[in-house]
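Researcher: We plan to redesign the surface later, but first we want a full-length starting point. Tokens attached.
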């Protein structure tokens, strides 16, 4: 078929029914999917919030810039995590982009320990949300929308404040922490 013939074809000839695609799709093995996703290198962040006087946090790499006007991000949080209900209730959180010397903080917030902030230097912002000292950068966020997808909630949030240090972020790739050396 030549390009001049395409111009004469109705748009419906190019449309695909999503139900037909889903019916023909072979399910992807969850282990294979996770192996592929581990190839996405990303900054290591700790998402922090406050609820009923308690401070909560979890290590996350699933964060995405949505748009710059207004400044908006999204984070994906497992519904079974202990921090999820507190983000949902508070409607505010901080993204602490860890510096390359803060691997111990990433591991700390990935564990199941109690009183998560007892040994972590932090300050509390005007909303009561903890900010980890020494982080490479921080985003102060207010939840605008919640989208439930499978085991996770996407929290879409407007940025209401920022902070940045002169440091290099900690990176996570293929289940290992690493450093940015040359970009």
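Model: Full-length starting sequence:
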């Amino acid at each position: 078929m030549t390009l001049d013939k395409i111009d004469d074809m109705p748009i419906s000839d190019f449309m695909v029914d999503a139900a037909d695609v889903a019916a023909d799709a072979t399910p992807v093995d969850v282990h294979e999917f996770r192996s592929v996703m581990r190839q996405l290198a990303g900054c290591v962040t700790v998402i922090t919030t406050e609820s009923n006087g308690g401070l909560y946090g979890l290590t996350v790499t699933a964060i995405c810039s949505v748009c710059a006007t207004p400044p908006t991000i999204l984070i994906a949080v497992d519904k079974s995590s202990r921090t999820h209900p507190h983000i949902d209730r508070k409607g505010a959180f901080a993204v602490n982009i860890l510096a390359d010397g803060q691997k111990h903080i990433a591991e700390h917030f990935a564990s199941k320990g109690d009183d998560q902030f007892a040994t972590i230097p932090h300050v509390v912002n005007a909303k009561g949300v903890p900010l980890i000292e020494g982080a490479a950068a921080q985003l102060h966020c207010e939840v605008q929308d919640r989208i439930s997808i499978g085991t996770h909630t996407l929290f879409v949030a407007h940025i209401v404040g920022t902070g940045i240090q002169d440091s290099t972020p900690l990176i996570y790739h293929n289940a290992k922490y690493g450093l940015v050396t040359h970009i």
